[in-house]
Structure formats: structure tokens, C-alpha cells
Amino acid sequence: MSGYINNSLSVYDISQIPLLSTPEEGAIPAWFNSSFITTCRYRDYRYPPGHQRQYSHTMQFWHILAAKLAFIIIMEHVVFVVKFFVAWLIPDVPSEVKARIKRERYLIQEYLHNYEVEKLKIQLSQSFIIEPKPEVCTATDKHDVLSECL
Fold this sequence. Notes:
Elements: H1 4-8, E1 9-13, E2 39-43, H2 59-89, H3 95-130, H4 146-149
Antiparallel strand pairs: 1-2
Family: Belongs to the anoctamin family.
Protein name: Anoctamin
Keywords: Membrane, Transmembrane, Transmembrane helix
């Protein structure tokens, strides 16, 4: 931890504070002596006074900012992967409900099939009653086609 405070705090020359921003004479604390204290430190990564790029962000600031953004993006992706994995593990519809849905579909298909068969039987019986055919089917072999008999 040696040098951490000097590394993580930036320096500001208090003689560069604009006059409109300086405290009034009565507001200055008694312990403050401007002849001894010439700088203040604040939490940031900026170049010190007197440097060629005075008070602009240092390269360390940009590295830390990039590391923070990379951490956020990586954590966001980890959360999404975990979320999709959990969603894949837990089914949306329970297996019992899926079985009931399959059974219901089967019953509906069976009902529709039986309905269509009955409807065709009724149509065929009505067509034989209304229009009797004089020809009699002479096919006795099981392999003869029904249409040949009509």
C-alpha cells in the first residue's frame, strides 16, 4: 500500500482558484494558513500543476476507465449466459401439462376423424338411396378395387 495515496490523489494548486470561488475572510478556518498550504489533493487521476498537460487526465485514468467498462460488459454477458442456462434448465410448461395437451390434440383428431367418417357414411348412404344403380357388382376377389364395382 506504499504510495497508494500519492498515486490515487491528484494535486491542485490553490493559488489558481478564481477569486469568485475563494471563501470569504470569515469562512476561512483558523487552522488554514495559505502561506504554508499551497496545494490540495482530490480523488482523480490528473497531471499535477506545472506539467505540460496540466490538469488533464493521465493515461492511468483511461486504463482504469477501460478496465471498469470491460468488467461491466463481461459481467453483463456472464449474467445473460447464466440467465439463459437457467431458462433452459427450467421448462416453461410442466411435463404433465405437455402430456395433457398431447392427449387433447389426439382426442380432437380422433373426434374429427370419426366425424368425417360418419359424414361420408351419411353422404354415401344418401347417394345410394337417391340414385339406385342398376348394375350389380360382380367382383368377388378381395383385391378388386371398389371403384370398379360402382
